[in-house]
Specification:
Strand content of chain A: 15-25%
Strand order of the largest sheet of chain A: 1-2-3-4-5
Helix content of chain A: 40-55%
Structural class of chain B: mainly alpha
Oligomer: heterodimer
Radius of gyration of chain B: 18 Å
Number of domains of chain B: 1
Order of helices and strands of chain B: HHHHHHHHEEH
Largest sheet of chain B: 2 strands, antiparallel
Shape of chain A: globular
Strand order of the largest sheet of chain B: 1-2
Number of helices of chain B: 9
Distance between the termini of chain A: 71 Å
Chain lengths: 193, 202
């Protein structure tokens, strides 16, 4: 009995200590990690979505808060003068959350382009969502009245063969982006002026 | 004391150099040695985990009950691996992207658990740190060496971190593409094991 209690106490104390240590490191590095993600994931994604932006969407980013959703918006102005915004949503893939940067044209309500940002998908399989642009290209130019579900679920998106879960994660993120955009558009337009 | 310290430290560099002598920890050795830079990054991350987990396990060696020791070791190792992962995300994000899944996989690297079980649980903290440093440095050197061979033959370059000079094989060199793919890892490792045995033969 004594031995049993000893084991439980030691293991509990050890896990509690490690939890505390990790929480400390996590909170200490959080800001720095967010900066790195911004620099190495979001910035290239936005650059790919709006290659001809005449402003700096990263520097002009702002937060919108409405209907219990807080969202970071990257506003852009394209070469032809149209106003666009980009923001990130998350879907669940095979190895955890998949971030999807979605660029939407505010004038026409159409998606300009999308790019996968942070993910932990299987190299060579799920990572095609990020590296092979033919999958995300399906979202480009689509309006807000289109169903972004996979074809098997009644939508319009062709899943990548062998990476259905990843495809679904991206599609869920896109559907979420559509919902958020429809809810927050008035607020975003107000803040842009 | 100083003599045994030096002995524990240097054994990891030759006599017990992990991938070539103990033939342990082969998963990262095969997977991340596409370039010298990746090899060194992985080696340094593993060394960090080794040193700290060895130190803590050695401090707690008389408190940890022997029946749950493996569970305790894994908790300690996993904690330090997560810390390394967070630190790499915060300060060397590009390297973190390249190494990807192999950083969290340090938890199941048998070198780390092996040193905990075979050394840190029986020796004092200072000796354990020396052992962790030595084995870690040996692991880093092995990864860098294999990475150098593979990168030089497979890509014709030798990149060592940003800002430092890049050596190339010259314009006439046609790289063996397969050396930076998976089969090249096996061939490279096999050749290096063979050379190590040849040199170390008595």
């Amino acid at each position: 009995m004594r031995e049993m209690i000893n084991m439980i106490v030691v293991l509990t104390a050890l896990t509690a200590f490690s939890g505390g240590l990790l929480a400390t490191v996590q909170s200490g590095t959080q800001v720095q990690i967010e900066n790195q993600v911004l620099k190495f994931q979001k910035a290239p994604a936005i650059k790919n979505i709006f290659p001809d932006a005449t402003n700096d969407p990263l520097a002009e980013r702002f937060s919108v808060k409405a209907q219990d959703i807080e969202l970071q918006i990257f506003p852009g102005v394209l070469a032809d003068g149209s106003k666009v915004i980009a923001f990130e949503t998350k879907g669940t893939g095979f190895g955890g959350p998949i971030g999807l940067m979605v660029g939407i044209n505010l004038d026409t309500d159409k998606i300009v382009d999308v790019r996968v940002t942070t993910h932990s998908e299987t190299p060579g399989i799920g990572t095609r969502a990020k590296d092979d642009l033919s999958f995300v290209a399906q979202f480009a130019g689509q309006g807000m009245d289109v169903d972004f579900a996979l074809k098997g679920d009644g939508g319009i998106i062709d899943a990548m063969s062998g990476a259905t879960v990843t495809s679904k994660g991206v599609s869920i993120a896109a559907i979420q982006a559509k919902e958020i955009y429809q809810k927050l558009k008035p607020e975003i337009v107000k803040q842009l002026k | 004391m100083a003599q045994s310290l030096a002995k524990e430290f240097t054994k990891g560099l030759w006599a017990e150099i992990p991938p070539f002598r103990l033939v342990l920890g082969l998963c990262p050795v095969l997977a991340v040695t596409k370039s010298v830079e990746n090899g060194i990054g992985m080696g340094v991350a593993t060394t960090f985990v080794l040193v700290f987990s060895n130190f803590l396990i050695s401090l707690l060696r008389n408190i940890i009950p022997s029946k749950v020791r493996i569970a305790c070791y894994v908790v300690i190792i996993a904690t330090f691996v997560t810390i390394v992962e967070l630190l790499m995300q915060a300060y060397t994000y590009e390297l973190f992207l390249k190494l990807g899944i192999f950083i969290p996989l340090i938890v199941v690297n048998c070198i780390v658990l092996g040193r905990a079980e075979a050394f840190a649980s029986k020796n004092g903290p200072v000796l354990s740190i020396a052992d962790g440093l030595g084995i870690g440095l040996g692991f880093t050197l092995s990864l860098a060496a294999l990475g150098a061979v593979r990168e030089l033959l497979g890509n014709g370059t030798l990149t060592i971190w940003e800002g430092l000079p890049v050596f190339g094989m010259g314009p006439g060199f046609i790289p063996f593409q397969f050396m930076i793919e998976a089969p090249g890892a096996f061939v490279g490792l096999g050749l290096m094991l063979c050379m190590m045995n040849l040199v170390g033969k008595k």
